[in-house]
Known about the structure:
This protein is α/β, with parallel strands linked by helices. It is built from 16 helices and 18 strands. It has helices at about 5-20, 155-160, 180-190, 205-220, 235-255, 265-280, 295-300, 330-340, 350-355, 375-380, 385-400, 405-425, 435-445, 455-470, 470-480, 485-510, and strands spanning about 30-40, 40-45, 55-60, 65-70, 75-80, 90-95, 100, 110, 130, 150, 160-165, 170-175, 195-200, 225-230, 260-265, 315-325, 345, 365. An eight-stranded mixed beta sheet has the order 8-14-13-15-16-12-17-18, with helices on both faces. The chain has a six-stranded antiparallel β-barrel with strand order 1-2-5-4-3-6. It is elongated.
Amino acid sequence: MKPLRDDLAAWLTSARRQLHDIEAEPTFEHVGLVEHIGDGVATISGLPWTRLDELLRFADGTLGLASHVDEERVGCVLLAAGEAITAGSKVQGTGEIIRVPVGEALLGRVVDSLGMPLDDGAPIAALRRDPIDQPAPGIVDRDLVAQPLMTGLTVIDSMIPLGRGQRQLIIGDRKTGKTAVAVDTIINQRSSDVICVYAAVGQKGSSVNRVIDAVREHGAFERCIFVVGSADAPPGAQWVTPYAACTMAEYFRDQGKDVLLVIDDLTKHAIVYRQLSLLLHQPPGREAYPGDVFYIHARLLERAAKLGDRLGGGSLTALPIAETLAGNLTAYIPTNLISITDGQIYLEPKLFYEGQKPAVNVGMSVSRVGGQTQAPGMKTIAKALRLKYAQFLELEVFTRFGAMVDERTKRTIEHGRRIRAILEQPEYRPLSMAQQIALLLAIDEGKLDALPLARVETFKSRLGAWLKERCPRALERVQKSGQLGDEAREDLLAAIDALVAEIQPATREAG
């Protein structure tokens, strides 16, 4: 057996040779100490060269974001729970900013605000990692919004149309169907080439799961990305969620594709930002929000745009959601967002509780850009729809008090009730553009006026399958071109008349 002394001598010779070959170089580490930590915010000293928005790494691996920097201390927002961090813990500057993975590998996945999987799937094989805060496209890089984004909801597509590259605010009180409108829009993209990104900011886990399950069941889940900063996530993670989601969406926009970004919701995002700002001892302004709350939302939503052909012609459409309290549209955050966006879809609690769903108040809703993108066939029919519906709503108020009305007013009211009936739509059942045009054509030509109001829902539910059976070519032409030519109009009206005639006898027998 070889003596132990020989083994030690051989090891010592080898070790000396390895030490001789090592080229020692000085290293510099930017290390500080935690002075105070609590509520998702840490105060750090000893990092004088830290830059604003720089990533900091704590001793336990937790990442933080330098959100307030002065000569002596750094205010850091934690991006994870950081339960092991205490006063005196070491913090190291990284010299980097927050980046998230982008690329095709994110499609069909549920991730957190840093791009880490939340769906128990495989690790994300990212194409690259991009900064979450990027400059908005310049004016010369943008093009006109000229292509429609169909939501599948008749009340929106006919009277408040959206365009690809638009920023449209969905606003209303709590529990009035704001998320449902956004989810139906995502589901309707199953028949288009639009990629959808849903950002959940401060939402309950059960609410987020319902959205994911609905899209998985009814939509094209494989072309969607879900970025979740849930209510139980650290405030810092919730704050960066919409920016991370926007960066993921911008990758596809820059590839020349059309993308829909839903942010649910920016009211909670503003509240989280106010909380972090107050903890960092930044001066409060109106309603205790920091003075730059308008800027943080403006720089986010300005990234939505239709790019010119020189940059690939892609588009990023933003549908931010905002919550009001008791219908107060003049509050600080709602007025900010209304002024930033290109229009708003207002969901009224009164309509919702009366059973009108989607509860869109067409009088207080507006789309400043999308009207130019509306399909010609729908624009022709829906041109007078909004005025007729508004007249009906005014006249209906008088009839509720038992006022005597003449025969013409009665006809106007009955016609208006049928308009309202076709604007009602169940959740998760978006309609194609051709079906919407057929519905609007039926109401515009007065085909439903003789039909009892209770049977209008039967007409709506049967119309899609009926048209596919009776006039599939006309339906296909309208869907592809968006035009309602004379021949297609006649075919659709003939099919509508036949369906009304079939429903009418059943009505008489029932009576």
